[in-house]
Write a structure and sequence with these properties.
With 123 residues, this protein is an all-beta fold. The protein has one domain: GOLD domain (Jelly Rolls, Sandwich), CATH 2.60.120. Strand 2 and strand 3 form a beta hairpin. The chain is elongated, with a radius of gyration of 14 Å.
């Protein structure tokens, strides 16, 4: 398994519905994930009160994505034939100082390794 991680706080290079500026809080990719192996793609630790507007993920095979806040699954989605998921919230997901938000993935392509990426966007 190979993990690539980058973090760009306060970047205003993306936008969300309603033209509300958003920034990339965390972005990373993971390569060569074995089948049936729960793997963390990206992690974001809040350094103060922060809000998450959405989370996008994709990969090279359909998979189950888990959004975990402080070690508790808060949402699980499965990607479809386009291999993408999009966690969107009715309002921003509020994080407090020290909260840890993880995006995890599991795929079931027997005897094959697959690649995945995820991006966490903040308001």
């Amino acid at each position: 398994m190979t993990v690539h991680f980058s973090k760009t706080p306060n970047a205003a290079d993306a936008s969300h519905a309603g033209n509300t500026p958003v920034g990339v809080l965390a972005n990373s990719s993971v390569s060569n994930i074995a089948d049936a192996t729960l793997t963390t793609i990206t992690t974001f630790t809040a350094t103060g009160d922060q809000s998450v507007s959405r989370i996008g993920g994709s990969g090279t095979f359909p998979a189950e994505y888990r959004l975990t806040l402080n070690a508790v699954d808060i949402e699980i989605q499965r990607s479809g034939p386009d291999y993408k998921v999009n966690f969107e919230f009715d309002g921003p997901l509020s994080l407090s100082t020290g909260d840890i938000l993880d995006v995890k993935v599991t795929h079931l392509d027997p005897n094959n390794t697959r690649d995945f990426q995820a991006t966490i966007y903040g308001v």
